[in-house]
Recover the amino acids of this structure.
């Protein structure tokens, strides 16, 4: 047996123990809901908070998007052609700069029904705004960061596992 083999055999118990430790901790950990991977996306972290959908550079808002720490997205507002406010809650999934959300709950007049998904490419994130590109049309849209206090919601959507969340009002 060579000295290298003796060293390797001497280190084997330590190596096995160090490899097994993460698995042992995972299997012996209390059973809780694991954190959602979406909430750890750097882009999701950069987008946390309230965003204004606007046609005038953020001075007025017709809809609001709020990225939540747990990986969900709340959306609400009012379009010019419908006097009824809309609201939806979606689960966000990230793949690089591509953001897809699957609608979990929505009012009847939201543009996607529950279970449907929508994907965009995030093209820019800055302190006061972010832009995304619609994959179908190629159009680029910019949303404006706003403080949480600016949110004005006419409708409530109950969100599973939390208190009901209010949906913001759109102002034109």
């Amino acid at each position: 047996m060579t000295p290298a083999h003796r060293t390797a055999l001497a280190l084997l118990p330590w190596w096995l123990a160090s490899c097994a430790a993460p698995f042992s901790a995972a299997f012996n950990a209390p059973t809780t809901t694991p954190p959602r991977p979406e909430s750890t996306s750097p882009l999701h972290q950069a987008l946390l908070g309230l965003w204004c959908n606007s046609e005038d550079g953020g001075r007025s808002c017709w809809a609001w998007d709020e990225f939540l720490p747990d990986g969900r997205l709340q959306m609400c507002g009012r379009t010019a052609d419908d006097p009824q406010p809309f609201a939806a809650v979606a689960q966000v999934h990230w793949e690089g700069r591509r953001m897809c959300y699957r609608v979990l709950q929505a009012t009847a007049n939201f543009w996607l029904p529950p279970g449907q998904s929508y994907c965009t490419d995030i093209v820019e994130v800055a302190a006061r705004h972010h832009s995304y590109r619609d994959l179908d049309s190629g159009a680029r849209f910019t949303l404006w960061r706003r403080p949480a206090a600016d949110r004005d919601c006419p409708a409530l959507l109950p969100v599973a596992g939390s208190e009901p969340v209010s949906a913001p009002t759109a102002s034109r």
In short: The longest helix spans residues 3-28. The chain is about 20% helix and 35% strand. The first strand starts at residue 49 and ends at 53.
